[in-house]
Design goal:
Elements (H helix, E strand, L loop, with lengths): L3 E4 L7 E4 L15 H43 L11 H10 L8 H26 L7
Antiparallel strand pairs: 1-2
Helix pairs in contact: 1-3
């Protein structure tokens, strides 16, 4: 049973629109060649790989900031040299922890990350001083 609606918006060439939902079984579908099946299989594999990549990336995006903060603490708390980011063993260690993380260069660390940590500390000290009106330097 098919419901047909005639579209009269174009009077010279009326179109008929079917409102019936048509379902086909696999037997009704045209036969596909082996190359088409191979193509579809490769497409499904690519989609699966991309899907898993973005799922991993979604899980890691929240941790990028944490990684950067931990890396900067390595330098200003432990007084490590900035050149550690060029040492092969350290690079392999970071890649083992998170293969998607691209290690920051030493110039970025010395110019941006340490400066940002300094500003955080400065703000924390100012907040403390505003909260506590009296200091005793004994």
């Amino acid at each position: 049973m098919s419901n047909v609606i005639t579209d009269i918006s174009d009077e010279k060439n009326p179109r008929q629109i079917s409102t019936e939902i048509v379902t086909q079984s696999n037997a009704d579908l045209p036969e596909t060649s082996s190359s088409d099946k191979l193509f579809l299989t490769k497409q499904n594999e690519k989609q699966s790989i991309l899907h898993s990549f973005f799922l991993r990336l979604k899980k890691l995006t929240g941790s990028w900031k944490e990684i950067e903060e931990s890396l900067s603490k390595l330098f200003f708390l432990d007084f490590q040299q900035f050149s550690i980011v060029k040492i092969k063993g350290f690079i392999q260690f970071v890649k083992a922890l998170n293969p998607e993380y691209k290690l920051t260069g030493r110039r970025v660390i010395s110019n941006a990350m340490i400066q940002a940590e300094f500003e955080k500390c400065k703000i924390a000290v100012l907040k403390y001083l505003l909260k506590h009106r009296y200091l005793d330097f004994n």
